[in-house]
Structures are given as structure tokens and as C-alpha cells.
Amino acid sequence: MKIDTNTMVSITEANQNFSKVARLVDEHGTAVILKNNVPRYLVIDFSKAENDSVASDEDIMSISKRLITQNREAYEVLAK
């Protein structure tokens, strides 16, 4: 994951000025909150999180076919 240094905020600053974090997310899509100068938290736009978390039907079907192929013998035994 690439992190834009313009979207990095210390945890102290985020605590005192969360509207700045929200503004960064609105402008750049993400904000990274640092704790002890280490990236610790990622704040993203809710609609982007929803889109990223949903797997496409094609992905699910290809994974399912691969698992069936790999475990065909076990599935046949279970089907009896």
C-alpha cells in the first residue's frame, strides 16, 4: 500500500482536530494516523471500504471451482 505523506497525521493531532482528518479523507480518500511515528490507523471513506470489501461473483466462482477441483475426492465421499 502506498501512503501519501500529505495524509499522515499524528494521533495527538487527530485527537485534537479530527475535522482535519475528515477533511484529508474527503480530499485524498484516506488518512493515516501515526502512533509513536509509526502508521497505526487507516481512515478511509465508507463508500470506498464497502466497494473494496465486496468480492465479485466472478472471484467467488473461480475460488469455488478451484476448491472443488482440489478436493473432489473428499466431496465425493461426503456426497455418499
TrEMBL record:
Q: Which family does it belong to?
A: Belongs to the phD/YefM antitoxin family.
The protein, known as: Type II toxin-antitoxin system Phd/YefM family antitoxin
Q: Which domain of life is it from?
A: Bacteria
Q: Which InterPro entries does the record associate with it? A: YefM-like_sf (IPR036165)
